[in-house]
Specification:
mainly alpha; 14 helices; Polysacc_synth; Poly_Biosynth_Transport; membrane
């Protein structure tokens, strides 16, 4: 299956997820204004962190090894049993820790201890979220794009209904609660769809400890947790800095532009996640890898550039549609943000090579270095340029990350060429 076809199949599911996210933002913007949108961003960062921790961060590993072992029933059963053991154990530990520190987390992230009850609900939901992520990773590993799309569309539809209902009842708290409960609904949708798939076997739901498979998954867990942990933590630190320097109102403008980027880029990043990780994991020769990378750039770069240009031209209308007239100052931030989005996608295509080929140490080091450099650039640029400096820091950091990934990809592909020459 080509990247274009994978993108076609995922377009509907991505649209459903996008609509669900935009409904939340629009509702929060309408009844809580820029300050509410800023707090929404903080809570969603926490959800992202806990969702990855709850599953042990092995989603990428499950996708990679299911793609490799799907024709080897014995190794596949060992892998999935170990993955389920890993995910369930991690979800119980993270859920307990979140319950224990719920009041402190509410005060630190949202500045109000009354949100502690909401964080406790999120803690209890971790087990269901971990199981849902496991099922989605298995379906993705089998490259069952159509079934995966159906799960995401149905889950997003239920999420939208819950957000509308609870936000009308409980305002901001209701919208945040709906985000939590909506994550667990994916399990109710995903399990029966997976059960009916031609590759499902009851043995895939057996929990077992397998030292070899756990060790392999642990390497991916380390990479995934690093990449999932650092961005939300850094974004939390950036918001705290921006709140101190400019106030929650201006953080809302910055968050609004970031949400627009997340929304339209979701179509592209979903295609990369669903198609590229299992595809690159299954390719071991240089020529095929080069061909896949060329196809990706020929398809994805024109697409992201076109979308970014459309968002920039329609930025005033987009801001009014998705938020409200209170967010008009956000229009000044779109230009550098959209340039950074294009550079981000260009770097992502190459960075997936590190994940697919399990370059654990290099991946972790690079994530740490560029997370730190982004934070440093935010402090430096906002001191000189004001709020827009945070956007300049985003674009500059991804440019540096792109250069790094070009160097890594050339060295890896050059090594494959040398290996092929040695064994001719």
């Amino acid at each position: 299956m080509s990247i274009a076809r994978a993108s076609f199949y995922t377009a509907a599911s991505t649209g459903a997820r996008l609509l669900a996210g935009l409904v939340v933002v629009k509702l929060v913007a309408s009844f809580a204004g820029p300050e509410g949108v800023g707090k929404l961003g903080q809570f969603m960062s926490l959800m992202s962190l806990l969702a990855v921790f709850a599953g042990g961060g092995i989603g990428a590993g499950v996708v990679k090894y299911v793609a490799e072992y799907r024709d080897d029933a014995q190794r596949l059963a060992r892998l999935l049993g170990a993955a389920l053991w890993y995910a369930l154990g991690a979800s119980l530990v993270i859920g307990a820790a979140t319950l224990l520190f719920s009041t402190q987390m509410a005060q630190w992230l949202l500045g109000d201890a009354r949100y502690a009850a909401l964080i406790r609900v999120l803690a209890v939901a971790q087990l269901g979220i971990a199981l849902a992520n496991y099922i989605i990773a298995v379906i993705n590993g089998f490259m069952d794009v159509r079934r995966l799309a159906l799960v995401q569309i149905a889950g997003s539809a239920l999420n939208i209904a819950m957000v509308v209902w609870l936000s009308q009842w409980l305002s901001l708290e209701g919208a945040l609660l709906a985000l939590v409960l909506g994550q667990t609904l994916w399990l109710a949708v995903g399990l029966p769809m997976w059960w009916r798939s031609p590759y499902f076997k009851r043995s895939m739901l057996r929990v077992r400890f397998d030292r070899e498979m756990v060790t392999r998954l642990a390497a991916f867990s380390t990479m995934t947790l690093t990449s999932a942990l650092l961005p939300p933590l850094v974004n939390i630190a950036v918001r705290d800095h921006l709140v101190g320097a400019f106030g929650w109102q201006h953080v809302g403008y910055w968050q609004a532009v970031s949400k627009v980027s997340d929304a339209y880029l979701l179509f592209i990043t979903s295609a990369i996640n669903i198609y590229y990780l299992p595809k690159l994991a299954s390719i071991n020769d240089r020529a095929s890898l080069m061909l896949e990378l060329r196809h990706a750039y020929r398809f994805l770069l024109p697409l992201v550039m076109g979308l970014a240009l459309a968002v920039y031209v329609l930025r005033t209308w987009v801001t009014l549609l998705l938020f409200s007239g209170e967010f008009s100052q956000a229009n000044e931030l779109y230009g550098p943000q959209l340039v950074g989005d294009v550079i981000k996608i260009a770097s992502f295509v190459l960075s997936y090579l590190m994940l697919a080929k399990a370059m654990t140490r290099l991946f972790i080091i690079s994530e740490c270095v560029f997370a730190a450099s982004y934070l440093v650039l935010v402090y430096a640029f906002t001191a000189h340029f004001g709020l827009v400096g945070a956007i300049y820091a985003f674009s500059t950091n991804y440019f540096l990350y792109l250069v790094f990934n070009i160097v890594v990809a050339r060295r890896y592909l050059g090594g494959l060429e040398q290996w092929s020459a040695d064994y001719r």
